[in-house]
């Protein structure tokens, strides 16, 4: 290998840590592409730590190069003691104290209080899906949904985090930091999105079984669109006018789906599984792992244990083709 080739390979290895840091700067679930107040503060802290770490990395490489290439001879004890005290004691003390003070100063920003009468959303983690309960000011009954959180842009929204079984963790990297959901406790998080968009979140605490397939979406929209969406979400389903959809509703009830699921406005009132009142207009299915359309609805009903092994819903693979299409059409119509 030529001298130029050796220098190229050496430079590539020296810059490897930087490429690793920059690789995660973008993406649907990147903490380094912030779209909210809290996420920006966290990203700034990360970049401060990354820049500091890179500077220290360069200094260490420089000292190593100096010792090996420029002054390879044995050095006296005073020089060695100075390097140990300066680089091994003073420098880490200053750097770590500065970063610790900076991170503590972010606390009030990340836990900012919301105004009286602001929207509250209760998120309950369950194995392996999310129950979402909207608590609008002045309204006694919550508006129940599942697996996606709608918020108005430009407004802080208080998220009340609970768990119904084991410890989960709620994390939407582009909007805020992660926080655990502990059985028997209510933790608090404030979300605020600066611009409309769809942001992916994830359970960030191993909760058994298909934990990796326990995602959700936060959908940020204008206050006008959010108010319209919330008004529609509060409504029960209307009578199915089509004979096909009427057969689908009867099939849903007679097959026992209503034992676990609620569809407001029908006899289905189960609470074990997600509320399906408006499942047809959700962004995704099965806690964020499938797109929402009639095909994936049918596939989930018939083969959910293949798509998400270990979840608590059995696969209904006994439906014949026509019955499965009818049931999927009914679920898709729940807009």
UniProtKB/TrEMBL annotation:
Residues spanning the membrane: 46-68, 80-104
Regions annotated as coiled coil: none
Keyword Membrane included in the entry's annotation: yes
Domain Cytochrome oxidase subunit II copper A binding intervals: 116-232
A GO MF label: copper ion binding
GO process annotations (BP): ATP synthesis coupled electron transport
InterPro entries found in the cross-reference section: CcO_II, CcO_II-like_C, Copper_CuA, Cupredoxin, CuRO_CcO_Caa3_II, Cyt_c-like_dom, Cyt_c-like_dom_sf, Cyt_c_oxidase_su2
Record's bilayer topology term: Multi-pass membrane protein
Catalytic reaction equation(s): 4 Fe(II)-[cytochrome c] + O2 + 8 H(+)(in) = 4 Fe(III)-[cytochrome c] + 2 H2O + 4 H(+)(out)
PROSITE patterns recorded: COX2, COX2_CUA, CYTC
Localization annotation: Membrane
GO cellular component, one term: membrane
Family recorded in the similarity comment: Belongs to the cytochrome c oxidase subunit 2 family.
Descriptive protein name: Cytochrome aa3 subunit 2
Protein source organism: Nitrosococcus wardiae
């Amino acid at each position: 290998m030529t001298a130029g080739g050796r220098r190229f390979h050496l430079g590539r290895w020296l810059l490897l840590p930087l490429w690793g840091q920059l690789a995660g700067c973008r993406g649907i679930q990147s903490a380094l592409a912030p779209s909210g107040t809290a996420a920006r503060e966290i990203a700034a802290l990360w970049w401060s730590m990354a820049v500091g770490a890179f500077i220290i990395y360069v200094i260490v490489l420089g000292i190593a190069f100096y010792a090996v290439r420029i002054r390879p001879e044995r050095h006296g004890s005073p020089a060695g003691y100075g390097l140990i005290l300066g680089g091994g004691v003073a420098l880490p003390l200053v750097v770590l104290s500065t970063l610790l003070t900076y991170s503590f100063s972010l606390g009030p920003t990340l836990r900012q209080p919301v105004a009286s009468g602001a929207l509250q959303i209760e998120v309950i983690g369950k194995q392996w899906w999310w129950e979402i309960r909207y608590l609008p000011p002045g309204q006694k009954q919550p508006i129940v949904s599942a697996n996606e959180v709608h918020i108005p842009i430009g407004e802080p929204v208080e998220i009340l985090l609970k768990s119904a079984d084991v410890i989960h963790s709620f994390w939407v990297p582009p909007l805020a930091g992660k926080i655990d959901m502990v059985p028997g406790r209510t933790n608090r998080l404030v979300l605020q999105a600066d611009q409309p968009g769809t942001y992916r979140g994830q359970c960030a605490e191993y909760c058994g079984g298909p934990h990796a397939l326990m995602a959700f979406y936060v959908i940020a929209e204008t206050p006008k669109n959010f108010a319209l969406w919330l008004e529609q979400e509060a409504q029960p389903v209307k009578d199915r006018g089509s004979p096909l959809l009427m057969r689908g509703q009867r099939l849903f009830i007679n097959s026992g789906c209503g034992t676990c699921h609620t569809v407001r406005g029908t006899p289905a009132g189960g609470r074990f599984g997600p509320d399906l009142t408006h499942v047809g207009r959700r962004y995704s299915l099965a806690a964020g792992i499938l797109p929402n359309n009639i095909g994936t609805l049918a596939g989930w009903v018939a083969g959910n244990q293949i798509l998400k092994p270990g979840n608590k819903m059995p696969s209904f693979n006994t439906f014949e083709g026509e019955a499965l299409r009818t049931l999927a059409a009914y679920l898709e119509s729940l807009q």
